[in-house]
């Protein structure tokens, strides 16, 4: 537009409209003024501003500068910006301080966490040390008490009953037939702690020895050689034993000769006190030749006695020695079941002599026989039994006449018929076996009756003895009513009814008990001799000798693999099973009750009724002979004999063992070539409280692998090698067992720790 105006002014007129010149000049002046003004503004104002600003920058107060080159902090000199900058700087400084504090706190927290973990470990270590100290203190206290007990023993040797030398003033009874232990036995030779030494005369050193039955003599000598009570030192012997029968009749000495030979025994001491005369019978016709001999104060053990001869509680009725030099064949013994057999009862026998003739024969002993002859019930018995057989109500076999020549027998005694094998075959078919006692009531027992009893028990026929006056073998210690029926002869008419009324359970119990008695006390010569000695020893209240420990031949093995703890085995909830730290192996206290066993238990059980008479209770620390390992009278179980009454849960946890202040147990584990299963079972025992040791009975002839690594469970593991593979090896008294309690298990038994502790408690 300026250029257009300038062109119009130069041309001197108005553009396009012919405007006047004045207007054109005024327009030029305005344009020029406007241009000048713009020039001044555009040129001078910036210069002035620059000068002003430069002047301000040169001022002395450097804090008043606004423009010019400045630092970052100097840009905030403006008041409203300065506040914001101060706030920013304050916040930044606080943030830096907080970050530093945060890092410092984090480091302190980390240090404290480390200290906490260290404290926890210290606490656990302190707890373990405390438990160990408690165990050490407890063990020290027990050791102190044990040392004190050694210096002050609970028991001292008893005072000797009588002087060492024989007392010449030993009172004599009015008659030898009145002999009992209190007036015919010298207790001074049998102290309580003597061990019951027995001296056995050698029969070959005396003339009557040549008349003895060779089989009986050999069996007796073999038994004597292995018996633990027999001693060769006669000076310390408690009982002296002499074998006088069974004798062979052609060379049998006269009664007077035998009496002189007995009285000449070196330790007879004028009256034979503490002597035992044994007359064993191998046949049913053994005669009672000792009846006419003066035996003084000597005890007699035989199978035939007259009432004037038998002294209850002093003499012993023994069983016949059928299996003299051979063991019975147990494979031929019939099974216990079925309960009922073909015949309800059976009897075979023949009466050789009548009562009248037998009494006439015994008239030479009028001084021993008093009163009138008893009524002879044999005729009534024959009539009644034949009537039962003819009634056909039950299968019954009774024969009163032998098909062949009957065996020799005593007067008024029913003789045996046939051979032994034939009689056994009949008894195997019989539920009951009748035994008719001799008609002479003065004959309290005979060899024929004991032979019938032996055969009936051997094959499981329940004996039915007709005659309540009979004295059965070992009758003063065996409850025969649990294995046999003893019925008075006048009740013969009621026998059939009585036998039919007995239940099958009672029949089976009686048969089982009879089998137990036969196996334990009748079957072999060892059993017979050991039972005779046990009866005398029990009568005079001497404890049994300990069983010899079985030497354990250890198999070397390597252990080192740390055993873990199976959570399923160790998960016991809140139940306190025992100390956390396993105690070192500790043997059980000595079993002192051996010396009080016979005095406390024998007569208490003897006088108590009902219940079996426990003649030989068996305990781990009161072992007796194998034949004494069961009590006479009941075969259903054993009565445990312990040192205390036991404890329930609270008492068990308060006292470590329950019965005694400190008590442990041994695990006896039977195995056979199952190494992996065995190792797993051993590992499960890791951490088990009260465990003394583990005895592994290696039942295989093949030794374990040499590279087998056995687990380390914190207690010793003894691997015992056996001579033969037998399941009974677990019951052997290994000498490595030091505790009273024994846990006998197989290698595949899976028991939790609380279950084992429950059994131990």
UniProtKB/TrEMBL annotation:
Keywords, ordered alphabetically: Coiled coil, Disulfide bond, Endoplasmic reticulum, Membrane, Transferase, Transmembrane, Transmembrane helix
A Pfam family hit: Glyco_transf_64
Molecular function per GO: glycosyltransferase activity
PANTHER family attached to this UniProt entry: ACETYLGLUCOSAMINYLTRANSFERASE, EXOSTOSIN LIKE GLYCOSYLTRANSFERASE 3
Subcellular location(s) of the protein: Endoplasmic reticulum membrane
Name assigned to this protein: EXTL3 protein
Gene Ontology terms describing biological process: heparan sulfate proteoglycan biosynthetic process
Coiled-coil parts of chain: 81-150
Record-annotated membrane-spanning stretches: 31-53
Predominant location: endoplasmic reticulum
Family, per entry: Belongs to the glycosyltransferase 47 family.
Highest taxon of the lineage: Eukaryota
Domain Exostosin GT47: 194-502
Gene Ontology cellular component terms for the protein in this record: endoplasmic reticulum membrane
Nucleus listed as a keyword: no
Domain Glycosyl transferase: start-end pairs: 665-761
Gene3D superfamilies in the cross-refs: Spore Coat Polysaccharide Biosynthesis Protein SpsA, Chain A
Topology relative to the membrane: Single-pass type II membrane protein
Record has Plastid as a keyword: no
């Amino acid at each position: 537009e300026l250029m257009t105006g300038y062109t119009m002014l130069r041309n001197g007129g108005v553009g396009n409209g012919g405007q006047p010149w004045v207007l054109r000049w005024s327009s030029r002046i305005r344009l020029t003024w406007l241009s000048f003004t713009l020039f001044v503004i555009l040129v001078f104002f910036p210069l002035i501003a620059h000068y002003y600003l430069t002047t301000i920058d040169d001022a002395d107060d450097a804090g008043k500068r606004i423009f010019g080159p400045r630092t970052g902090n100097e840009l905030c000199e403006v008041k409203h910006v300065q506040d914001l900058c101060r706030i920013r700087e304050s916040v930044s400084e606080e943030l830096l301080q907080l970050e530093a504090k945060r890092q410092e706190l984090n480091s302190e927290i980390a240090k404290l966490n480390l200290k906490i973990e260290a404290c926890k470990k210290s606490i656990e270590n302190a707890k373990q040390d405390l438990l160990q100290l408690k165990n050490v203190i407890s063990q020290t206290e027990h050791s102190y008490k044990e040392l004190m007990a050694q210096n002050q023993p609970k028991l001292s040797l008893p005072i000797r009953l009588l002087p060492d030398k024989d007392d010449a003033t030993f009172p004599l009874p009015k008659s030898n037939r009145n002999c009992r232990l209190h007036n015919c036995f010298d207790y001074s030779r049998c102290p309580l702690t003597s061990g019951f030494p027995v001296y056995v005369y050698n029969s070959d050193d005396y003339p009557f020895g040549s008349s003895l039955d060779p089989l009986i003599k050999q069996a007796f000598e073999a038994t004597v050689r292995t018996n633990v009570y027999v001693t060769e030192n006669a000076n310390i012997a408690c009982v002296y034993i002499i074998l006088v029968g069974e004798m062979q009749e052609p060379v049998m000495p006269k009664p007077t000769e035998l009496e002189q030979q007995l009285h000449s025994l070196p330790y007879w001491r004028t009256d034979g006190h503490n002597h035992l005369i044994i007359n064993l019978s191998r046949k049913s016709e053994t005669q009672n030749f000792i009846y006419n001999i003066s035996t003084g104060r000597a005890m007699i053990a035989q199978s035939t006695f007259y009432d004037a001869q038998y002294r209850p509680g002093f003499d012993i009725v023994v069983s016949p020695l059928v299996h003299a030099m051979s063991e019975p064949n147990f494979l031929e013994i019939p099974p216990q079941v079925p309960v009922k057999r073909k015949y309800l009862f059976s009897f075979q026998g023949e009466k050789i002599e009548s009562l009248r003739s037998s009494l006439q024969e015994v008239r030479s002993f009028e001084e021993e026989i008093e009163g009138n002859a008893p009524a002879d019930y044999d005729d009534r018995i024959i009539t009644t039994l034949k009537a039962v057989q003819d009634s056909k109500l039950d299968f019954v076999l009774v024969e009163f006449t032998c098909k062949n020549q009957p065996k020799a027998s005593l007067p008024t005694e029913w003789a045996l018929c046939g051979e032994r094998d034939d009689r056994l075959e009949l008894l195997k078919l019989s539920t009951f076996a009748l035994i008719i006692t001799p008609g002479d009531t003065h004959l309290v027992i005979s060899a024929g009756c004991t032979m019938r009893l032996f055969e009936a028990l051997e094959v499981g026929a329940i004996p039915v003895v007709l005659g309540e006056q009979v004295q059965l073998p070992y009758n003063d210690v065996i409850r025969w009513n649990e294995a046999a029926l003893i019925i008075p002869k006048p009740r013969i008419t009621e026998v059939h009814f009585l036998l039919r009324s007995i239940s099958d359970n009672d029949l089976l119990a009686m048969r089982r008990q009879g089998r137990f008695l036969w196996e334990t006390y009748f079957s072999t010569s060892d059993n017979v001799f050991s039972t005779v000695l046990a009866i005398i020893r029990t009568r005079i209240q001497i404890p049994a000798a300990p069983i010899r420990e079985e030497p354990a031949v250890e198999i070397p093995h390597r252990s080192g693999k740390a055993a873990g703890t199976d959570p399923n085995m160790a998960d016991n909830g809140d139940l306190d099973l025992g100390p956390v730290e396993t105690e070192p192996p500790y043997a059980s206290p000595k079993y002192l009750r051996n010396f009080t066993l016979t005095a406390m238990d024998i007569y208490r059980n003897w006088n108590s009724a009902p219940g079996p008479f426990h003649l030989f209770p068996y305990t781990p620390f009161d072992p007796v002979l194998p034949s004494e390992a069961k009590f006479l009278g009941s075969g259903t179980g054993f009565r445990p004999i312990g040192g205390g009454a036991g404890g329930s849960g609270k008492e068990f946890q308060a006292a470590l063992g329950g019965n005694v202040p400190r008590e442990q147990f041994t695990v006896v584990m039977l195995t056979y070539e199952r190494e992996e299963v065995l190792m797993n079972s051993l590992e499960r025992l890791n951490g088990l409280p009260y465990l003394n040791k583990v005895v592994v009975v290696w039942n295989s002839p093949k030794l374990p692998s040499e590279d087998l690594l056995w687990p380390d469970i914190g207690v010793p593991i003894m691997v015992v090698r056996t001579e033969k593979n037998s399941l009974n090896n677990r019951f052997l008294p290994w000498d490595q067992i030091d505790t009273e309690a024994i846990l006998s298990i197989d290698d595949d038994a899976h028991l939790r720790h609380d279950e084992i502790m429950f059994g131990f408690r």
